[in-house]
Amino acid sequence: MRTYLVTGGAGFIGSNFIHYLFGKYGDSIRVINVDKLTYAGNLENLRDVSGRENYTFIRADICDADAIGEIFRDNDISRVVHFAAESHVDRSIRDPGVFVRTNVLGTLVMLNAARAAWERPDGSYPEDHRFLHVSTDEVYGSLSEPDTYFYETTKYDPHSPYSASKASSDFMVKAYMDTYGFPANITNCSNNYGPYQFPEKLIPLMINNALNGRKLPVYGDGLNVRDWLYVEDHCKGIDLVMEKGTLGETYNIGGHNERQNIVIVKTIISTLRDMLPDSDPRKANVTEDLITYVADRKGHDRRYAIAPDKIRKEVGWYPETTFEDGIRKTIGWYFANPEWMEHVTSGAYQTYYKEMYSE
Ligand code: NAD
Ligand code: TYD
Fold first, then answer.
1. Is the CB of 136 under 6 A from ligand 2?
2. What is the pTM of this model?
3. Given this model, what pLDDT does residue 353 score?
4. Helix 338-346 and helix 202-211: axis angle, to 10°?
5. How many angstroms separate the alpha carbon of residue 202 from the centre of ligand 2?
6. Whose CB has fewer CB within 10 Å in the chain, the N or C terminal residue?
7. Ligand found nearest the CA of 59
8. Which residues are marked as active site?
9. Does residue 13's CB lie within 6 angstroms of at least one atom of ligand 1?
10. What's the confidence (pLDDT) of residue 359?
């Protein structure tokens, strides 16, 4: 039975990916989720898979070489999907050090552990073993000319401590592929949205604030552009690259869905108004009066936009969810799971681990 090691599986995209894997492969695979459970890790995201016999959660720090080495020695792992990272740009501006530790050193630990477990004495690797490093389009920097896009060949030009740390980790993966013939791929994806996203990121923050009648803080002039992708489409892209991609290659993932931040915020307001019944007392507060322009983010990248030509051509990936459907699904998910948001905002989600694992 094929065993996946997923790092950062208790976070937003990692937990969606674990759901995706079980949805697609069911009982024919095993999944080991390794997560440190920082503020961004939430085991409530995995409540419905936690009882499966083919799912194991291990609380560990990816910077802990002994713990990670032991996981590889104890398990016959042939797929690594590496999500674990510090992921929020604003936090990286306040405290870059933890981003270098987890994103750069943690990735190095993962590469060393996989190489030690997989490399044969003659330097070759078993045919079906793969390491997929999940990265971001932010490594390419900011686009200033209209109708220009990020290609896999675009020069890296990171600006924030977050994107600089992800760029460094990408280069380390590339170095392992070039130096040791290490069997890896890198995917660079645009901004994700969907269920289980921590409300420090634009879309869940705006949904939560609007529902609570709180101000909607838009940075700068609100005209920065991000290229939004529904998280399930990202998960499908990662799986397809692992199954059909050429080892050693990088694939950009994005669905040509560029929107200005202010347009996103206004779409959230109108969709909330459309979806809330008139009898819901929150509805009256959800208006554009909540929008407040605040000081701009330092070094704020103006525009990101992915050219997904290579992933479409080589592995047949395309996004299935339009933004109009995706935002309704996302808002519908937050409506259906008010206790998830309540636990995240109150901090109660952090006690779930103690209850589950009696620590
Ligand atoms: P997230 O912040 O929601 O989750 C990160 C997870 O990693 C958490 O569960 C956290 O507990 C865990 N983690 C952090 N430090 C760790 C450590 N030292 N050891 C073990 N686990 C640790 O992040 P996300 O939005 O799900 O992003 C996942 C990956 O995808 C990241 O590598 C990110 O760079 C990349 N990415 C994110 C986006 C996006 O829009 N969110 C877009 C492209 C790429
Ligand atoms: P974010 O979700 O933090 O993702 P990233 O910075 O990785 O792209 O932010 C998306 C965009 O929204 C970005 O241009 C910053 C902006 N933004 C706001 O205007 N207000 C907010 O409160 C947040 C969190 C983000």
1. no
2. 0.98
3. 76
4. 100
5. 5
6. C
7. 1
8. 137-138, 162
9. yes
10. 55
